[in-house]
């Protein structure tokens, strides 16, 4: 079989129960841009129906997985499905699809699914995450975020947020949801979608790893200006004032509302900036330690890094304690040569990120041991 040498992009379509995933999917798969997409629909329950509702222009490219929820019981099935489809959907040695769209169940935690995509030896070599798209119901979204931590995680980890059912929402509901999302995921573009209709370009090719021969749009991908910035200065760590930068109140651990039990009080989104080039060893040790101790609470990290001795930047991308292999870019995307890392975390504040970085940066290199 002729194998495309480039990994197959995978889009994860997530969103709480009834928030409009299938409606969006149904619209998307009928667009010419997705004619070569294979759709995997994960449903929960004995009567799996959604796949019957998705009218793909190429019917044979819809696969349904309904024996459980992808993020928990059937992760092995996902591996199997992703492994099998390359030959199952091949004709005359040619793979019949160029990308994969996975619709999760409404209660899915995207993180374990991403782990599978990024770490399973056979899957990670053949597929790459293109992006996470989350649907949120404009009318009921705020309530859902109040009550379901799964919905918070879906919104926090998304690269793009699709705000559905605009026709049913009041201005107050829209404003409340927008305010809420500012705290949970300030950088992800938000598109209002009515009855599932949206241009496929808004949800495809979202990562920096997506582009075959195209110069990656790192600034768009990182969108670091959307986060409250914190700049690391080696000699005067006390002088910076994160609060003075912040327009996202949750990033500073302050609450402006009364409900202490709200799930997103635990979610923080912030940008960490380092002015000076970073030694590769410092970076590796710092990230290792960070991931080992608080990795499961780091929902996403994206970064463009200035590494000592290198002319061009390195891009990193992680989900919890799993990192994609760093990607060297051919050149800096603009004038800004600072390292910029954006974090979306649960119960991990910027203080910890800064303090650990400071600690590792100040550790002098260990002299090599000499044999006696
Ligand atoms: N009024 C209105 N209804 C919508 C819109 N988008 C989706 N719906 C309806 O909302 C309901 C749920 O939509 P689905 O697309 O099935 O939602 P889902 O997220 O796939 O649902 P689950 O599979 O149960 O998690 C359906 O009745 C849709 O027709 C919209 O923009 N406006």
Report on the structure:
The chain is α/β, with parallel strands linked by helices and 372 residues long. The chain folds into two domains: 8-202, P-loop containing nucleotide triphosphate hydrolases (Rossmann fold, 3-Layer(aba) Sandwich); 218-362, CobW-like, C-terminal domain (Hypothetical Protein Yjia, Chain: A,domain 2), CATH 3.30.1220. Helix content is 29%, strand content 23%. The protein is built from twelve helices and 16 strands. The protein has a seven-stranded parallel β-sheet with strand order 3-2-6-1-7-8-9, with helices on both faces. Helix 11 (280-294) crosses helix 12 (350-362). The chain starts with 7 loop residues before the first strand and ends in a 10-residue tail after the last helix. Residues 45-53 and 235-261 have low confidence and may be disordered. Guanosine-5'-triphosphate (GTP) binds at residues 15, 17-23, 50, 106, 135, 164-165, 167-168, 194-196. Guanosine-5'-triphosphate binds next to helix 1.
């Amino acid at each position: 079989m002729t194998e495309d040498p480039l990994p197959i992009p995978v889009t994860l379509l997530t969103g709480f129960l009834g928030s409009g995933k299938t409606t969006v999917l149904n619209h998307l798969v009928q667009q010419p841009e997705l004619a070569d997409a294979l759709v995997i629909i994960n449903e929960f329950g004995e009567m799996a129906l959604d796949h019957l509702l998705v009218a793909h222009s190429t019917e044979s490219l819809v696969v349904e997985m309904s024996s459980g929820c992808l993020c928990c019981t059937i992760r092995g099935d996902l591996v199997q499905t992703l492994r099998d489809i390359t030959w199952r959907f091949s004709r005359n040695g040619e793979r019949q699809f160029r990308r994969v769209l996975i619709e999760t169940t409404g209660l899915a935690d995207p993180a374990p699914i991403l782990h599978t995509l990024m770490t399973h030896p056979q899957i990670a070599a053949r597929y790459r995450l293109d992006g996470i798209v989350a649907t949120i119901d404009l009318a009921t979204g705020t309530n859902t975020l109040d009550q379901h931590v799964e919905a918070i995680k879906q919104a926090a980890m998304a690269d793009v947020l699709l705000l559905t059912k605009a026709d049913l929402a009041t201005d107050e509901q829209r404003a409340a949801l927008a305010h809420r999302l500012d705290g949970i995921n300030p950088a992800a573009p938000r598109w209002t979608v009515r009855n599932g209709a949206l241009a496929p370009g808004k949800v495809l090719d979202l990562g920096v790893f997506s582009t075959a021969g195209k110069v990656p749009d790192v600034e768009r991908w990182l969108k670091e200006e959307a986060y409250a910035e914190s700049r690391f200065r080696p000699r005067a760590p006390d002088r910076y004032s994160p609060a003075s930068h912040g327009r996202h109140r949750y990033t500073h651990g302050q609450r402006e509302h009364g409900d202490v039990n709200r799930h997103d009080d635990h979610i923080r989104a912030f940008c960490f900036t380092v002015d000076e080039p970073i030694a590769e060893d410092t970076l590796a040790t710092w990230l290792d330690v960070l991931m080992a101790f608080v990795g499961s609470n780091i929902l996403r990290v994206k970064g463009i890094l200035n590494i000592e001795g290198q002319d061009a930047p390195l891009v990193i991308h992680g989900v919890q304690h799993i990192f994609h292999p760093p990607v060297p870019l051919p050149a800096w995307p603009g004038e800004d040569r600072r390292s910029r890392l954006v974090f979306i975390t649960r119960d991990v504040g910027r203080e910890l990120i800064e303090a650990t970085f400071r600690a590792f940066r100040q550790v002098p290199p260990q002299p090599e041991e000499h044999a006696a």
